[in-house]
Amino acid sequence: MTHRDTNSLLDIMRREWAGDTYGVYARLRAGGPIHWDPLLRSWIVLGHREIVDLSRDNRLSGARISEFYEQLPAASKSDMKPLAEALSDMMLFNEPPRHERLRGMMKPVLTPRFVRQMRPAIQGIATALLNRLADAGEMDVIADYARPLSRDVIALLAGVPADARHLLDDWRGLLHEFFTQSTAEHGRIESLRAVFQQGLAQRRAGADGDLLEQLMAARKAGAAFTDDEIIANLLLLIDAGQATTTHLIGNAVLALMAHPDQADLLRDQPELLPGAVHEFLRYDSSVQFTTRIALADLEYGGHRIRRGDSVTLVLGAGNRDPRHYSDPDSLLVTRRAGDHLSFGHGIHYCLGAALSLVEIEAAIGTLLARTRQWRLLDENPPWLDSINFRFLTALPISFSPAAGRATELQEVTRDG
Amino acid sequence: MNEAEWRLSVDRATCIGSGMCTSSAPEYFALDDSGVSRPLAERVAPDDALLDAANSCPVEAIRVQRIPDGAVLAPAR
After folding, report:
1. B26 contacts in A (CB within 8 Å)?
2. How many domains, in total, are found in chain A?
3. Quick check: A129 and A148 in contact, CB under 8 A?
4. Which fold has domain B6-71?
5. Do A104 and B23 lie within an 8 Å CB cutoff?
6. Chain centroid offset of residue A248 CA
7. Taking the model in full, what pTM does it have?
8. How far is A374 from chain B (nearest CA, A)?
C-alpha cells in the first residue's frame, strides 16, 4: 500500500481505502478540524463544532449554480439550459431572500406535524412490501425494500400518479448531471414536468386531491410562485429525498448487522426506535458533505478563508468527531444523537428531515419486527464510486421470518 | 389582565438555526450572533403567524403557550 505525503478527501476514491470512508476521515483529522485540501482545492471541515459554526455563517453561500453556468462556453450553456434553469429555481441553491420565498412553498408539506399525518400511509407501504418479501428468506434490502419504499413515499407526496412512477426509478442526481455537463436526464425531466403541469392544471380546475393540493393552497394564499418554481422544487423533493432516504435505510440495516446486539435491543424495546433513527443517521449518513462558497474573506479557527474559496463541510466526519461523541465508531441506539449533522445545519437544514425520520423508523421498525437472523449474502456489499454519497448499490441478505410479534411492534412504532 | 396573551419560548439547545421562524414570523423571532433563534418578546398578543412558526420549525424547538393555564397551542401533536 502506498500513500502520498498529502492526505486528501479524494483518498476515499483510492482502491486501498474503498468503502473505508471513516478510516480516511480519521487520517485527515491529523491535519486539524479545518484545513486546506490542495487536491480537492477546497477547505475541508471535519469537526462537529466547526461545521455547526460555519453552517450558520451567512458569509458562506450555497448558491453556486449560476456561477458555474455563467463560466461555461456558449454551446455548453445552451445544452445545459434545462438543468440550469431547474436547479437555479431550487431553494437549496439560493440564498435569502429568494431562499425563504422558495422554502415557504414547500414548508407546509414537510412540517413535523404534516409528516405525522403521513405516518400511517408510510407504514402501510412498508408493511405491504414486507408482506411480499417476508416469506422469501432472502432480499436485496436496497432494490427490494428501501428503494420502492422511498420512491412510493415521494410519489405520494409529489402527486406522481401510479402510471408515471417509473419516471422516479434509477434517478440520477441532477447536481452531478449538471456539473458533469450531462444531458442524459433531459428527457426524464421533460416527462416529469408534463406530469407535474398536468397535476397543477387539475388542481387549478378544482379536482380535490392529494398533497400537491397544499402547494396550490399556498399559492391561493397569496404566494406568487410560478409553475417553473413549483416544478423545480418538486424535482428537488425527488432529487434530495429519494436516493438519500433509500440509502439511509440501507446503511442503517448494514450498521445493525455489524452490531447485532443493538438490533436485538431494538426488537426487545421498540420504544427506543425514534432515538435510534438519529443514531443511524449519525453513524453512517448517505450524504457525507455539503459545499459552500465564501462570499467574503473571513477568519475562522486561525485560518483565513478568502472570498471565492470553496468550503466543504464534511458532515460524516463531524458525526464521528471524537471531541463531540464518545466511542464515535460504535453504533449505540440509546445514545442521544439528535445533534448529528446529517441533515446539515443552519438555513440549508434539510427541509425533508421529518419525513426521512418517519420513513427510516417505519422501514427499520417493520423489518426488525417481521424478520430476524439477518446474514449478509455478500460479505463486502458494493458501494457507489463516490466521495460524497455513501450508497450501497446492493445489500443482499438472508433472514428468517418472524411473524409472531409483528403486529405488536408495528403498533408501538406507529405511536412512537 | 389580558387573558388572550401567549408565551413564546425557544429551546436553544434544540434550535438548529434553520431560520424558518425568522422567515415566517420575522416580527417575533431573530437569530442571534451564534445563529440560534430567540423570541423578541416573551409575552405577546395572539397571532396565527406564531402558530405557523412553531408548527414549521423542523426540530419543533418553539413552544407557544396560553398564559393563564400554560396550555400548549403549538406545535400541534
Report:
1. none
2. 1
3. yes
4. Alpha-Beta Plaits (3.30.70)
5. yes
6. 7
7. 0.87
8. 33
